[in-house]
Amino acid sequence: MVRKDRRPNVLLITCDQWRGDCLSAAGHKVVRTPNADALAAEGVLFRQHYGGAAPCSPARACLYTGLYQMNNRVCRNGTPLDARHGNIALSARSLGYDPTLFGYTDVSPDPRTLAPGDPRLKSYEGVLPGFTVRQLLPEHQKPWLSWLKARGIDSGAGFPDIHRPADQIDGGRVEGAVTNAPPVYSKDETPAAFLTGEFLRWLGEQERDTPWFAHLSFLSPHPPFIVPEPYNSMYDPTEGPAFHRAVSWQAEAESHPYLAYNVDLQERSNFRPGAEGKVRDWGDYDFGRIRALYYGMISEVDAQLGRIWQAVKAADAWDDTIVVLTSDHAEMMGDHYMLGKGGFFDGSYHIPLIIRDPRRHKAAGASVDRFTEAVDIAPTLLDLLGEKTPPHLDGQSLKPFLDAREPDNWREAAHWEFDFRSVADGHAERHFGIGPRQCNLAVIRTKQFKYVHFGGGLPPLLFDLEKDRDELTNVAADPAYLPIRLELAERLLAWRAEHLDQSLALAELTEDGVAGHVAGLPPFQS
């Protein structure tokens, strides 16, 4: 029974690089996600949910701050998050919670707040301000490796070699086609299983009458693409939807200068440790095998979700706990001959979102087809906790959908941004002959069209999604589509003008003092 005399618990779960279509609750014909589906049956599934940026750090900055990339300005992994920005952990702490982290947040600290020699300046995998860290698990995964060693598993290979097939863990070359050979660790010893175990131990320590806020940040199904039995053979490489792509990678590369750059950049070793060559040169079977492993990784992390649901129920906390399940960004998974994330395709940005609030039953089991975005998470949680959403945030609360209501003036398009500058080595800047401020793109995606605007003079893209689901035919130069291109360019410009940093723009100094809203301070009465 829901307690009405206290705030609810909050369980925010992110699963890194999970595609929004890879849920059986969303209608995927191959992937099986019974525990995510069970959450959707009690909550609301948002079918058209999109990340705000890529890769991890920019995507998470949008999720945690409720601000678009144009305002939080986290452009790449390693771009510092300006200390002036609030975030969901700081907000929860101000409400009396002790927000507790299991995993990672990939937030680079503001160097202006640290001494020049501070070791935190040597890694982009910092912790979002406001979180208490119970179990940090950054990409090097050293705490997990130590745990494996204590269980008698030789983890001397370290990251990423620990994720090679067991018979190749000595560091030799990975020969031939992609295989589904398992790693040295079992299904009960994955990083997700380790992190879940740490959360369950912490959960057992919580007092029944004290509300808690936990953030589980799983790396799966992020590469390296490998998974233990039985998940390594759960899916057939020949099954799954057709890949969205042109007849060849060369045709993809010829379609736009950015695609030519990106498809040439991808190395197999970034996705399968020890593999040599370019991703683009893998054949259909190899892409299918990788996709089958990716599906297996999703099912493996879904099994950990089942452990979490069971434990929260056993602690008699299920009816007092808001659960948010989402991802930071998605995964190309062979579409357009690419793996990973970035660029402008839906495959990189369409992500899952399921929200369950036990106090709201009207919409239980419903699905929403309106466009929602990562920046909506922070204002939604604040709204569900009874707090007014700061007006300078870019996101909107999803609470009306949870109450089975259609919000007024809801957005008719999804937006995202991608910045491909390479500040440390200038690779992209040299390749395109442009400056770092020009290495970017912005997307507006409606139900029928997608318009992509590039900086630096790179040509724009326009896709008619009703006729071209695979995003293969750029009609930006077609005279018949010129009115559509102009309309979407104007809408994209209006979107940027509306959302450019509002931290102080919503305040005004008058003879009676400050009127309006100042970000970071209590609201003023005008």
From TrEMBL:
<dbReference type="InterPro" id="IPR017850">
    <property type="entry name" value="Alkaline_phosphatase_core_sf"/>
</dbReference>
<feature type="domain" description="Sulfatase N-terminal">
    <location>
        <begin position="8"/>
        <end position="386"/>
    </location>
</feature>
<keyword id="KW-0479">Metal-binding</keyword>
<keyword id="KW-0378">Hydrolase</keyword>
<dbReference type="InterPro" id="IPR000917">
    <property type="entry name" value="Sulfatase_N"/>
</dbReference>
<dbReference type="Pfam" id="PF00884">
    <property type="entry name" value="Sulfatase"/>
</dbReference>
<protein>
    <submittedName>
        <fullName>Alkaline phosphatase family protein</fullName>
    </submittedName>
</protein>
